[in-house]
Amino acid sequence: MTIHEDETRWVAAWTNSAQGPYPVGNPAAQPDLSFALPSSEIGARDQSFRILVRPSVWGGKTRLRLSNVFGTRPVAFDDVFIGLQLGSSALVAGTNRPVYFDKTTKCVLPPGSSFWSDPVDLPFVTPESETLLWGRRLALGFHVIDKSGPMTWHAKSMATSYLSAPGAGSKGSEEGEASFPFSTTSSFFVDALDMSVGSDSCAVVAFGDSITDGTLSTLNGDDRWPDVLARRLYEKFGNKIAVVNAGIGGNQIGFPADYSARNPVAGGPSMAQRLERDVLSLSGVRTVICFAGINDLGTRVNASVESIGAELEEIAGRIRSHDLCCVGATVTSALGASGAHGAPEQDRKRKALNSFIRSSAAFDSVIDFDRSLLDNETGRIRVEYVPNSTVGGSGDYLHPNRFGYLRMGMEIDIDAIFGEGAPRALFSRK
Q: Which of 4, 106, 278, 288 is the most buried (most CB within 10 A)?
């Protein structure tokens, strides 16, 4: 069956929230980038990137958003391409498609800006191929002309992408892997990708910190709790419901109050500050799951539960003012973790914050992640959820591993949280 253009809409299919200028952030399993990116001030220099992304829904047209929101000088891009990954940085022959910006091959982004590409046809995406493509990755290739200066990035992508050598020139049109010798577990300069899908399709945004971003999950395993939820929704509703990840490692609800490229912190801009760009500006969003607070408790040790709760309610109110569903989530235990996160006093405040979240009228519904992971005897997360799935080792009692994320994603009661009769009623507050 052919879907006509007037029966389609743009829906966010992948996101990686812009969090600051490289290298400020919390990457996971990052290779040594000193050969690929020798100077953070110079940034990329006449070189090409191949950023790997996994769409949560597929359509016959796509578009991508380039970002220089945390740059300090204009960045010029050309020779932007998008193709289907074969393996590593190699592409499936014949799938690499040129990307245009206002019908030109070049795009210059001033500092603090982002820009959407023109629509790109993906002829290999058909109704018959959607099932086989789900879970596959697209490669977003682009060339940075001259020097970029400080680079807008997302530190913890939990997926491998690739770079050419500095001074190597434009390589995005190539289908092979020889020109992309360097790997990274972060993404640079691109923060969103849309797909043109049926008009009854929509997106869920997972909005939070490192436990949404996927710390301690499996590198390239796509086993964070939003990934698990995405597969469950796909299994039940098919190619209609996208789940996109807007988590940032170290992120806080209300701090810092003012974030900039010249005054960055590792956890990125606060959820309140980035809400418009990372959630409200995305295409086809109907539901937002807000899951954060542990970093506010662990970093702003003097912040009261009431002040953190008020900040969370303010974000929920902004979301609901756009006629979107806002789902709250309880904060999981960090008792026994290093630093202030694991202190008994902070755990007491965490429990009080969870009581507030469970009873607050600011949310349309609540997911009890705390109950999913908690060992009631110790007050910690259960021991089987602790060992590190990314690089091995003992874990940190703050972030769950693959097993813990699986439990979180499977514990979400789709019918109870989102309502029956999906997809239309699934994401409607009315």
A: 288
> How far apart are alpha carbons 383 and 65 in whole angstroms?
40
Please, where are the H alpha helices in 118-268? 130-133, 210-213, 225-237
Closest by Cα among 302, 368, 364 to 331: 368
**Predicted structure pTM score:** 0.96
What is the CB neighbour count within 10 angstroms for residue 339?
13
- Would you say residue 69 has pLDDT above 80? yes
User: What does the alpha-carbon distance between residue 253 and residue 95 come to, in Å, rounded to a whole number?
Assistant: 41
Question: In which domain, by residue range, is 271 found?
Answer: 200-427
The sign one gets for the Cα dihedral 16, 265, 225, 278 is negative
Query: Minimal CA–CA distance to 293: which of 418, 207, 381, 379?
Result: 207
- The tens digit of pLDDT for each residue in 145-165 reads 999 999 999 999 999 999 999
Please indicate, yes or no, whether residues 88 and 176 belong to a single structural domain of this protein: yes
Q: Residue 71's closest CA among 152, 147, 14, 5? A: 152
Phi and psi for 202 in degrees, rounded to 5?
A: -160, 180
CA distances from 425 to 3, 201, 227, 319, 334 (A): 22, 11, 22, 18, 35
Could you tell me if residue 76 is inside a domain? yes
Pairing of β 202-208 and β 285-291: parallel
Count of residues making up the chain: 430
Q: Is residue 96 part of a domain?
A: yes
Q: Is the bond leading into 31 cis (omega within 30 degrees of zero)?
A: no
Cis bond leading into 98, ω under 30°?
no
Question: What does the pLDDT look like over 235-253, one tens digit per residue?
Answer: 999 999 999 999 999 999 9
157, 96 contact by CB (below 8 A): no
Could you tell me if 184 and 36 are in contact, meaning their C-beta atoms sit under 8 angstroms apart?
Answer: yes
Q: Quick check: is 3 in a domain?
A: no
| Tokens, residue 192 | 């969103």
Other Cβ atoms less than 10 A from the Cβ of 125: the count is 21
